[in-house]
């Protein structure tokens, strides 16, 4: 271009930007003193004046600026009408390049005279765009074609324009921090130069054509056959010349012709949207530039869309495709857990934990499109929503107005997602320019679902990848993996199995998928919700406090927790809580039934349960405390220790066993991407009608067990519940963390040697409480604010409701403590009688109900001879953890497809029988079955 031209272009761009900026600033101040009518007229004139300035400069400079103008001209849903009316002129042909230039490029690229290639070449171009112009022609063999010829010297101009655009965006972000478009321009700088290689465009065109023409042979056919578009055939290509099949069509901005031919514009845009949904979610390969100039409409009924110009085409990985589909469906369902998980999977990193605001912003991209006439109202709605989000951010981060303008809640924005959002915005602009409304959630949903459900691929996970790729630790593990393959995806969605024998890992297997709509493979560090398995963890915390001298089993609860001593609860002792004999088996049941989200309020549930009245005399009857157990024990834990529940969990169990990041009761922000999602085995659910209540199960619980079993997954998949402290039902852990816990309990508290080195990532390698990236915001002196463990600037006293923000003082100290604890001879219990306490035998036998199923907090199992040598706890749906004291064996099974436990029982029996170990009665073929007391009394014929 030469330095002279480069400097001239740069000066023109920045001079115009400054002129427009100061014009708007001046009007902004002036309209404060005029009437509403005059204000509207003033703004209209200002928009028209500056739109003409922009148009004239873009036509003069050509290159990238024309392309940018074309993009802006499609945003009738958000831009003022004067800009749309003026800039849409750029969708028509620009001044054509001289024929001599066109001829020279063609003959140089094709290596022969034009007359040898074309029987006829129409001199007047069909269109002249920012990068090339298009002529109609007839090949020597008689085929009708269009020839796309790149402008001479355009490559240098585009590259220079990208630099100027980058500088301009950086200046705008500095002047108006709320308008920071740097991530978008960065991605454009990376992708735009690809448009300059027409060989690249030719191959893209062929690929998209193959993908969209694929019918029933690609899979089910139900989705792909719904896409009905036309794409011209590629005849020949070089670096700067592209010859395509000629297709006679109507331009989208030719409204008169569209009306004359009777084109259904609503159906047209819906079909284009389907085509893009297929490209994005099914193919992972899509055109990133769907502006009106890149489409025609066939003149013959049914007036199909003709897709053109695949220069800016983006290929995304399978994992990114799944993450984008997951983001879409999470917005459709309002699922905050899935949304945050999708963000993590696609590489979008946030600096602040604000799930509702994140959902609001993400949903903007999938909202129903608006017509051009509604642009003003749409702009106001978006502005109002932005103001609400900024206010929430300001309150969350304790920032003043100036600070919040400079605070960017996004730490990293993936380029793939930027192009994806640009496509959605262009599609929205397309519908607005044609004055039709499109419900994107309805049109795109089947394609997103098919990606996650695998209906257009060969199975959900390739058979070779169904079992997580890790070395088998033993022969029994190899046999277990064969057994899991035999069960297959009909019975298993996702599963983890881990077992310790004599302190060593003999099984550590993960298989299947994280969820029905999450086809990522289960890994050893995936976190499963385990329901009543949590009770065994909570019970361990109570025993730890007794071992530490902070608590006694015989102590009355009211002595520890003064507010508890009301409504005839004065005689309830700690061991009554652990043994399910306090008489509070239905406590809060009615309250939670009327207000399910009460379970998310830790302090209020403790207050409420302290006011409850027992239904039976303490110690007189053992009736399963299905939900109240956790709050009763949790209240005792906090009052006896003087610490938050989460602090005791870390101190007593997590850090000593070095299982950081893989055992929680209520998850902290930042681990969502490792969560398994629950679903229900519908066939098993039908069997619940045969369950009858017994003496150990509250009749109130079984009266609606079928309804509960179908509703619980929905409730416990929500973010609020998963973050809540519910110590009876809301544990999230990996099988290897839970198995390690029971391996320690089996020996009375001796910490096993480090977990298997073959298990990747290593157990304990995750930070237990993830930190958000520190925002680039300088702290003011004297504000009384400091950085807490979340890494965000916030009031030091503003701890997280679940107690996570202040748990850690030093990661170095924690690491040292964990390393020391994992050393030889370390224990988490010092009492030599702790095993008797777990099972309620020996000197503790008087504290448990005669012949009851529970010891002190743990479900105790008998072997074939009736000896109590097993204890543990299972959870509704099938997950379990237990140990065999006599044989120094511990095992954990995690599942996310909730059932009556047939998969778990089969796994447990196979492993124990292969090892020659006795099978606890809960998992045997003849004993009482059911992975949780709720499902423990189903008729034998329904419990195979």
Automatic annotation (TrEMBL):
Domain Beta-lactamase-related residue range list: 489-763
Residue ranges annotated for the ABC1 atypical kinase-like domain, each copy included: 89-339
UniProt signal peptide: 1-28
Keywords: Coiled coil, Signal
Residue ranges of the region described as Disordered: 752-812, 921-944
One family name in Pfam for this protein: Beta-lactamase
Biased composition (Polar residues): 789-808
Biased composition (Basic residues): 777-788
Protein name per Swiss-Prot or TrEMBL: ABC1 family protein
Organism: Urochloa decumbens
Higher taxonomy: Eukaryota, Viridiplantae, Streptophyta, Embryophyta, Tracheophyta
């Amino acid at each position: 271009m030469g330095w002279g031209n480069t400097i001239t272009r740069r000066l023109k761009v920045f001079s115009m930007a400054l002129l427009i900026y100061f014009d708007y600033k001046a009007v902004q101040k002036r309209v404060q003193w005029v009437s509403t009518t005059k204000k509207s007229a003033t703004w209209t004139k200002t928009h028209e004046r500056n739109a003409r300035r922009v148009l004239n400069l873009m036509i003069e400079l050509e290159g990238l600026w024309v392309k940018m103008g074309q993009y802006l001209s499609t945003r009738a849903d958000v831009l003022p009408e004067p800009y749309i009316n003026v800039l849409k002129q750029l969708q028509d042909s620009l001044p054509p390049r001289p024929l001599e230039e066109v001829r020279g490029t063609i003959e140089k690229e094709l290596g022969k005279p034009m007359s040898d290639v074309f029987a006829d070449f129409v001199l007047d171009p069909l269109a002249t765009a920012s990068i090339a112009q298009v002529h109609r022609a007839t090949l020597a063999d008689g085929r009708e074609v269009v020839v796309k010829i790149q402008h001479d010297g355009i490559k240098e101009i585009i590259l220079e324009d990208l630099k100027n655009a980058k500088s301009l965006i950086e200046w705008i972000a500095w002047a108006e921090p709320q308008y920071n478009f740097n991530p978008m321009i960065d991605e454009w700088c990376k992708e735009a130069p690809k448009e300059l290689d027409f060989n690249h465009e030719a191959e893209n065109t062929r690929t998209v054509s193959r993908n969209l023409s694929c019918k029933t042979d690609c899979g089910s056919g139900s989705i792909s056959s719904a896409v009905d578009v036309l794409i011209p055939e590629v005849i020949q290509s070089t670096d700067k010349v592209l010859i395509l099949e000629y297709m006679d069509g109507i331009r989208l901005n030719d409204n008169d012709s569209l009306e004359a031919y009777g084109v259904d514009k609503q159906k047209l845009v819906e079909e284009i949207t389907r085509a893009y949904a297929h490209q994005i979610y099914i193919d992972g390969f899509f055109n990133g530039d769907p502006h009106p100039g890149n489409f025609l409409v066939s003149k013959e009924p049914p007036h199909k869309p003709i897709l053109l110009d695949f220069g800016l085409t983006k290929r995304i990985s399978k994992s990114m495709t799944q993450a984008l589909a997951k983001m879409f469906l999470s917005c459709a369902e309002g699922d905050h857990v899935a949304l945050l998980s999708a963000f993590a999977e696609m590489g979008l990193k946030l600096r602040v934990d604000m799930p509702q605001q994140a959902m609001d912003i993400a949903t903007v991209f999938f909202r129903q499109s608006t017509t051009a006439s509604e642009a003003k109202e749409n702009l106001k709605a978006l502005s109002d929503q932005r103001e609400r989000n900024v206010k929430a951010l300001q309150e969350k981060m304790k920032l003043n107005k100036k600070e919040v303008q400079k605070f960017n809640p996004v730490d990293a924005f993936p380029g793939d997602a930027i192009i994806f959002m640009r496509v959605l915005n262009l599609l929205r602009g397309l519908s607005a320019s044609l004055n039709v409304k499109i419900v994107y959630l309805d049109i795109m949903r089947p394609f997103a679902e098919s990606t996650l459900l695998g209906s257009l691929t060969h199975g959900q996970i390739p058979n070779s990848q169904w079992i997580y790729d890790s070395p088998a630790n033993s022969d029994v593990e190899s046999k277990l993996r064969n057994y899991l393959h035999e069960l297959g995806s009909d019975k298993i969605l996702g599963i983890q199995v881990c077992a310790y024998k004599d302190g060593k890992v003999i099984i550590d297997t993960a298989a299947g998928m994280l969820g029905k709509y999450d086809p990522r493979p289960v890994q050893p560090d995936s976190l499963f919700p385990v329901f009543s398995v949590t009770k065994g963890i909570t019970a361990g915390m109570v025993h730890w406090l007794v071992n530490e001298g902070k608590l006694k089993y015989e102590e009355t609860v009211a002595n520890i927790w003064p507010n508890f001593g009301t409504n005839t609860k004065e005689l309830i002792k700690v061991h009554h809580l652990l043994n399910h004999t306090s008489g509070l088996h239905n406590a809060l049941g009615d309250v939670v039934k009327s207000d399910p989200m009460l379970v998310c309020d830790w302090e209020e549930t403790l207050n409420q349960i302290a006011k409850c009245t027992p239904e039976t005399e303490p110690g007189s009857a053992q009736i399963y405390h299905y939900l109240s157990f956790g709050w009763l024990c949790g209240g005792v834990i906090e009052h006896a220790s003087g610490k938050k529940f989460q602090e005791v969990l870390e101190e007593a169990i997590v850090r000593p066993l070095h299982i950081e990041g893989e055992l929680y009761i209520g998850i902290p922000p930042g681990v969502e991407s490792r969560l398994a999602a629950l679903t229900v085995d519908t066939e098993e659910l039908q069997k619940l009608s045969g369950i009858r209540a017994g003496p150990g199960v509250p009749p109130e619980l079984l009266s609606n067990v079928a309804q509960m079993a179908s509703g619980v997954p929905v409730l416990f998949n929500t973010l609020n519940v998963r973050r809540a402290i519910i110590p009876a039902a809301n544990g999230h852990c990996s099988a290897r963390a839970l198995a390690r816990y029971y391996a320690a309990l089996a020996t009375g508290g001796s910490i096993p040697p480090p977990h298997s080195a073959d298990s990747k990532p290593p157990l304990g390698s995750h930070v237990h409480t993830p930190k958000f990236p520190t925002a680039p915001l300088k702290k003011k002196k004297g504000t009384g604010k400091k950085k807490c463990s979340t890494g965000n600037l916030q009031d030091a006293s503003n701890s997280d409701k679940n107690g996570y923000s202040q748990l850690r003082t030093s990661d170095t100290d924690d690491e040292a403590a964990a390393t020391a604890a994992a050393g030889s001879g370390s224990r988490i219990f010092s009492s030599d009688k702790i095993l008797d306490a777990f099972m309620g035998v020996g000197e503790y036998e008087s504290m448990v109900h005669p012949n009851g199923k529970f010891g002190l907090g743990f479900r105790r199992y008998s072997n074939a001879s009736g000896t109590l040598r097993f204890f543990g706890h299972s959870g509704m749906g099938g997950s379990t953890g237990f140990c065999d004291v006599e044989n120094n064996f511990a095992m954990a099974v995690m599942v996310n497809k909730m059932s009556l436990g047939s998969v778990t029982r089969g796994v447990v029996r196979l492993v124990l029988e292969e090892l020659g170990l006795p099978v606890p009665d809960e998992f045997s073929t003849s004993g009482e079955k059911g992975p949780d007391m709720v499902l423990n009394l189903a008729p034998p014929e329904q419990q195979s």
